[in-house]
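Objective 1.3, modelling of assemblies. Example input:
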Amino acid sequence: MNSIKKHDLATLGACAVLFAIVQTLLFVDFIGPFWELNIILILINVILSVSLNLINGYTGQFSIGHAGFLAVGAYTGAIITVKLGLPFELALVVGTLCSALLGFLIGLPTLRLNGDYLAIATLGLGEIIRICILNIEYVGGASGLMGIPRFTTFAWAFWITVFIIFVIKNFKNSAPGRCCLAIRENEIAAETMGIDTTKYKVMAFTIGAGFAGTAGVLFAHYFYIAHPASFTFMRSFDILTMVVLGGLGSMTGAITGAVLLTAISAVLAEYPEWRMVIYSLTLIILMINRPQGLFGSKELSLKMFRLGGSDNGRATESK
Amino acid sequence: MEELLKVNDVSMIFGGLRAVSNFTMEINKGELVGLIGPNGAGKTTAFNMLTGVYDPSEGEITFEGKRVNGKKPYQVTAMGMARTFQNIRLFSELSVIDNVKIAYNMHIQYSLAEAVCRFGRYFDEEEAVTKKAIELLKIFKLDRYQDEMAKNLPYGEQRRLEIARALATEPKLLLLDEPAAGMNPQETHELMEMIRWIRKEFDLSVLLIEHDMSLVMGVCERIYVLEYGFCIANGLPEEIKHNKRVIEAYLGEEVS
Amino acid sequence: MDMGSFAQQFAQQLINGISLGSIYALIALGYTMIYGIIKLINFAHGDIYMLGAYMGFVATTMLGLSFVPALIFAMVAAGIAGIIIERVAYRPMRNAPRIAILITAIGVSFFLEYGMILIATPQPRTFPAVFEASVYNFYGLIVNSQQILILVISLVLMAGLTYIVNHTKVGKAMRAVSFDADAARLMGIDIDKIISMTFALGSSLAAAAGVLVGVYYNSIDPLMGMMPGLKAFIAAVLGGIGIIPGAMLGGVIMGIVEAMVSGFFSSTFRDAASFVILILILLYRPSGILGKNVKEKV
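Predicted structure (tokens):
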């Protein structure tokens, strides 16, 4: 058990070093506003993809309504700071909790469904959330909620992302996390092992939804605005794509998927008319060649590199 | 003898089909009971009723005096019944040790907060569970595979792992659904020895489903025979062996 | 609102709903056929509908064709596009995890949308008036010629499809593959060919819907397929996915409900209504109106 603690501390140390480097580069303006924006966006997308991976990858529940929870977080967070004038920290907490609560309420009836049916239901619910927001005048309706102060800094986004990654990683390596994995592997066997499958499905869904809400608060407080058009089902597809591209059920995969796709998107921003065409072609080609995602369900670790590159390929191929 | 499981006049009706009709059975503490019948006789349906997968259409099932009807499978497991499956259902993409640890999860006390933030009971209990899981794997000679993915085990080992996993839930009654399916005579023989040994070692009762009569004769103390959903006979192996209706049901089959 | 005008309003929305619903039904048919045969939610299907509308636009403006030849042109072009998409993007993934194929479908959808924006600019185009639009007034109920056109064309196409599926060799093979692909292969059916055929048929129906919508609303744009695609998919689920009459029924019901909601409440809730239907049907009858429940065997 001590080795686990040591490993965690080492990872945390590496995060601190990474943070210090990027923060310094930002400070001396080596990283300009364009890439600063994209770094924040990457962090937000990492939160979204690891939280969706908890639902889709670990628990095996096919959800594609994540943008709805992102929206709930963004709007409740903005209400706290803009309408009520309360601090950002509170917005983060309330945004997360509201999203989680909604995830719980939605998850309870819908998680009885499985496979494609659950996917469609979550897609529909995500859209219902968006359409409801669209019709609430209090939060600006179709023109969105404007004038949100920029409270999200690199430091906030970075450390919240690290925190969420740790929470989800620890969750996976605990009894409730193993229950979720068991449900993914074989729901009927899981139930006969004494696992209340509904409880753990809803638990994973609630946690995932909550963290999507956190991402929403960060999002709204960086881009000054919460607009219904940012939370369509296309946004949910985006997040799902990151998870599947990285490798469903792999934390490092989800992170890599988010970083990679956001970065590709940013690089292509110079060619606006070609951007989505190239993006979609990349996606199709990657999926055809690596349907199991970049990492499969494996985790990327230093051990892989020690064994050499060829083994890396083999390990992921076996899925 | 102390009564453990009581099945009272239970039927299962799907649409118009009576898969199991007016089935009555009891299992006492420490007994090794067999449930046999030709393919399609309703054995697995009976199993599914006992373990909460199906809710019986009629009749009542009690376990240690508590009602089983209407309980969900996970609740039935918590009452002290564990089962294996005819078509193996392991957590195939998880490691062998995780398969067993998952079955121990019921007995874990630490809270979600303790798990996620890694404090309190988390480390002690995780360590205890890992230790228990390894011990159990050792008993079943599976410890050398502990980090292997379950799907990569040879067939016989997969069957053993499924039994080990069921035992990890610490049951009072173990239900085995055709555990010898797909095994050769040598493996089958070893398995039957193991079942007898498990019963003694873990101090539990066993209900064994088989369609091959000869297997059950050697190991079970009492036998129930199903045919077309009806219980056509029950009694000691010797009685069953000479029961006319049973011989007819197994038409042409050698009853040794 | 008194009873008389309520009834009239209701009847009016029923007419609007049925014509809208026939469009949904045409798109839903492709969804349901493709799902039935390879269990793929083909998210690019709505964009095939868009592609069809543009093909109709090209045929009428650039090639100067009249309505029926333009419709056929669009259907054939979209059918070929459907075959190519299946061949290039989906066939290599026949044995891949289903979620990966779904992501590929999303990729194809983006590709068609933004490819079209690249070629035709994001601006909406005015679809030429190929028909003398006349408005008929039956005792206060307004029916225009386009609505009649939509209904007639849809019925003809659906009848054609039903004939193909039920009475031709290809149709029989399609049903066989959707029932059990492995068994069908063993019976000597060329599965790849049948899947191609299914994509061709489904795509051409969607293209027909695209042309009809172009004629009806006079306006087309590269992202026009997103929402109708999603709603047609809901229609397919509503009727029972994989079931051809179900898609027709689901499409018409969706159209009617939407027309009623925008007629009696507010058009902003129109989209929400379809999703609410979706959730309700999934919770209470996930296999759809005409579907059968299947339980996993233990």
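Residues 15-132+140-223 of chain C form one domain.
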